[in-house]
TrEMBL record:
Molecular-function GO terms, alphabetical: DNA binding; DNA-binding transcription factor activity
Entry keyword set: DNA-binding, Transcription, Transcription regulation
InterPro entries, per the entry: GntR_C (IPR011711), TF_FadR/GntR_C (IPR008920), Tscrpt_reg_HTH_GntR (IPR000524), WH-like_DNA-bd_sf (IPR036388), WH_DNA-bd_sf (IPR036390)
Residue ranges occupied by any HTH gntR-type domain in the UniProt entry: 13-80
Species: Corynebacterium lipophiloflavum (strain ATCC 700352 / DSM 44291 / CCUG 37336 / JCM 10383 / DMMZ 1944)
Protein's UniProt name: FCD domain protein
Domain of life: Bacteria
Amino acid sequence: MNLAPETPTTPAEPLLNNILDTLGTEIVSGVIPAGNTFTLNDLSTRFKISRTVAREVMRALEQLGLVLSSRRVGIKVLPASQWDVFDQAIIGWRWKADAQRQLKELSELRFSVEPVAAVIASRHAEKAEAAELIELAESMVELAKEGNSEEFLAADLKFHTLILKASRNDMFLALAPSILHALEGRTLYGAKESIPGPDAVDAHLALAEAIAAGDADGAERAAKVVMADITPCHSC
């Protein structure tokens, strides 16, 4: 999985994606603050594009909740409360603007969702899924001993995605891309060690075994140990 910002699929041309990347980053970083307004002519002049292309850019930003257009006001930048913060493009732009804050918020999301997903997975995981979780956890223990951070991360991403899938909760699974950004972010932005401590690594295996055994309490305890190093800091 790549943490590079993913611009919306429409429009798809490289020029338009580059413009969206520029404007999206400026909006989420506050360079263009909420309440500011601009026009299609402003976009056309700044980026040397036609009004048709400028309109496509405006529509893409509007779909993400970053702006609202009207004939009377023009294109108005909206506050963060209106943004589609789970969209991968916005997550990517927020990484670029303030990686520490984005990691903190995504980690808090993980802490809120994953222990519950683990409990539910202990009730609904299929035998093949439970076996795969154990296999992944065992490989992570060995990869951690070897210090192989790249393969550890790949296994970790599969492990946590599988837990969300095994919960049979489509809404949890829909959060997987955002949650996985938190896992990748700790490595790419150096916010945490690329491989967690021994207790957290071993807890992955305990978590997998609890899910396989249908042990809901054990799954919840192990999930919290796995995430002990990302426990939300409410004073941060």
